[in-house]
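Figure-free illustration: sequence to structure, shown twice.
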Amino acid sequence: MASVIAGQVSDNLLMSSFEDLLPEHLLDVIAKLQNPQSFDAIDVCVRVEALQQMGALKDVSSAENVKPTLLQLAKLNLLWIPKEPLVQMSAGLKSSTLWSGVGESVLLALRDEGFPTPDKVIASLQPEHSIPQYLAMETRVMTYLEGFLWATSKAELRRFLIFCTALDIVQPFEKVKVCFNASHGLARAPSATTCSSTLTLSRLYVSQEELASDLRAVINSAQVHQFDVL
């Protein structure tokens, strides 16, 4: 089963794929931990918290131990954790005549169907426009949002979904509703209600760069990542 899911994967590819899933603040800590000159400069609490957020159960004693530890975490998060539910699903399907004939290829196809890509995420958006006089402004902000999603990284795309829906997959029959308000200044930060998959944006953005900056601030925040881990 593991070979079906992952194939023969090199350590470098595993590490690269794992790093794509991590937020910027963890990548910064990892880079410093792997450098012997900066390892001791990292506060122990910061180091332990970063490792725990990635799934580690214990601290590392030196910079030389960081890469092997990260490789083990990559295997855990990319190979074994995704494999386990598929194994359980496969066993469950075999016990029910309603699912007779459904094999691993179908399960993998379902998993791939929900894998987030810019076009899938954009297709899942459903703007909830207010009154006609604001339509042009809100349509412009939707264009900025789509531009951000096309240009963003795989990790940020996943975190955008988590911010809006609490899930890191695209739900085929669930739309992400995009609502608008007139907030500005410090109150302009995007907000989301995950139980209803609703994203709320200000209609007063005048550039994609402004919207992208505010979105990155909320989806990459430590609070959002902590909620994701819990």
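We now fold a second protein in the same way, so the two outputs can be compared directly.
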Amino acid sequence: MTTSTSEEQRKRLKKLYITQKRNAGISKADSQADADQIDTLSKNQLELLQHILLNTNIILDRVLDLQQYQLRDGNLYYTTDPFYDCKVPKKSKTLFRPSKMRSLLLFLQIISFATFFIFLFVFLRLDAFESIASGNYRLGFTIAYFLMTLSLEKLLLVLTGKLKDHYFFSDMKPYNAVIASAKLQSSKSRTYTLMDIMQLPDGSLINIESENDYSTARIREFFSQRPATTRIWVNTDTYDRFLTDEEYRKKNGSRLFARILSYGSTLIFLLSILSMGYIYNGFHMDQNPYARQVLIHYTDSDKKLISEYPESDSPYSFGCNITSLYADLENGDKYTLGGHPIAEDDSSAISDAKNFLRDTWNIDARNSSKHATGATDVIDSLIRYGANSSYRLFVQKHPEIKIAAKEVLHRYGKDFSVKDVIVDRVEDYKAFRHTTFHSDEARYLGATYAYARHGSNALAAYDFIRLYRIAGICNRVGFISDRECLTLCYNMAQVLQKNYTSFEDIHEMYCYGEMFRLKKDTPKNRSQIQRDVTSIKHLEKNGDYTFMNLDFDQKLNKHH
């Protein structure tokens, strides 16, 4: 029975011995070979080994190193220098200095690592970036934003380090210590915390952990120094982690890199903030004032609400009148929202419609995903900002447009039409005498005519004409439901009826919006605008406006 018990004890100790050495970075082969020495130990040596493994942090280099320790009255003592006849501290006897500062530093460290993800979440969720006028300024704002994020992360880490240096690593003193063991911190990166046994001023011994983590190779290098005494640096009044002699010298030596990191991060952070402020202040577009009135809640439904022959008080019928300009331009159907009929069973027409949405508006699906832009997001963005928001910013930055608008009114009267001004050039207006154009004369003229006609929100009509077309096509290909389409048509109609006088008036705003969008006064662009004007003339000549305008001011039925 005694022999059987002894064998079981040896097996348990072998397993525990190998496990501890493996956790300290010792190879499995070396650990196994050394563990075989346990078979040669006497009963007293087995008790000594068991006490060391279970009650202390000591990991033996070799089983035969048991001779360096002695078990007396249930306590373990060193039998060799540098701690001859000193009691080996138990596992629980570890230097511990709790402090509120440690909690603050931990919080700062967590925040620093979370900073990037927090700001990325803000970037994805808020529309602050969408409100920057498109082009290089939006790209510049985005780059500055992420540089600010990365530099802020580094500044928080620098602040954490400086606070730690001030409160924990100042007034450090050297202590004698021996390397006891190592503890695996990360199995993924194979890093370890070093555990030393140090001697306090009163002569007693205590366990203490290293401040830093080390690689497997570095841990093996430390263990190769045993059993020699090592010197560690600790501020035992405020902290419970130690620095090695080498780490202490580096920390108190040249700090050029730390200064470069600190000052560099601060400079990048400030420059990023200033750049963002400059771009935001000069190129930020305010959300359109009517956006809340027009935006809808998307509630998908298969219920058919759009009639093939809608009543004149239907929002759908109102929308068809709006998109009749497209129908005339493209030889389409004036009685279809969007200008072109798309039958449910016409796969070719549906495919062409989806290609149009993809190529023109980057719309690939109902909702946005990682690989597709959703119709709902494009519609909402066009309502919130669109050309009208960009136009408002442009007028604000170029006060000469308002002066030129007065010239238009003085020359043609308040009821002027696109047919009156289409042949004008920027040279015809005194307000632009000192304006520096960057090949964007058409943009200035479009903004001038729009402002002269309907003021600061004139191009809402331009955005809405395009929105009516998007809504009609998206509805036919299944990206938005009938109810969503009708609600959107109704909401836009409420704004148009209050702010414009007729469908012809709205179509003229489309011409000015195209001038604003195309920017350059080139023969090609001039020809495109002229085609739009010709379509307006054609609708007028055919009596379409006379017929359509009968329904312009009537109260619409939201649910038909």
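Summary for the second example: The two ends are 94 Å apart (CA to CA).
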